[in-house]
Amino acid sequence: MSWGSIDRYAKSIIKEAGHKIRNSFFSHIDIDTKSDANDLVTNIDREVEKFFIDRIKRDFPDHRILGEEGAGDQVTSLDGVIWILDPIDGTMNFIHQRRNFAISLGIYADGVGMLGYIYDVMRDDFYNAAKGEGAYFNDERLPQLEITPLHEAVIGINASWVAPNRYMDNEPIIRMIRQCRGTRSYGSAAIELAYVSTQRIDAYLSMRLAPWDVAGGIVIAQEVGAIATTMKGEPPNLLSQDTFIVARPGLHEEIMKNYIHLK
Prior knowledge:
The protein is of the alpha+beta class. It has 7 helices and 14 strands.
């Protein structure tokens, strides 16, 4: 099957999954915790992930699936075709706000992002890209990002990274926030990646993100010229949790050089 056919297939099941999520608000939602009291998961996360896995395994038995809720494959290498999925990115927002969450999906071949999708379910906003073919927001092609200096930039960052923490020196981050135009935090890495790609924010950074948080958004962001790396300047880690920054060209280098000091 061609990548074009896989693209049409992925769009179809993402929209179907979004419909299932919207309908879930009319039923009971069970809430559990994972690593800590703020790391939440619901029965809807698990049911939507199972929906994707059942479909993909039926129609693409040779493909592997890396999903947040652990129902997919044990992926230890990027060989072959891998679907990297977060059925609900922003579960806390899903529970508390019933908005500001998204389905995130990236499809990779031997470690190369071929297709990327972010679906803001409640706004019915669809972001997608195919490698080398541009990125789209609701079927409208997105323009290439231009260079923006820090003093004109809006930065996506969680407030916890401004406080003292065990990952990086927070004092340079405080200086960065004072020098930029403003900050935002939406509680969903997928949505923040989509917003970098559509120029609603100019950079997004986090000290702890998993592959399924960023896999779809990386493909989209790179197609409009954004730079995505770890905070060591390495390619994004698609096998385990790691630091992450995505930003407009120029701004990425400025932030990395002047404000990121890892411990």
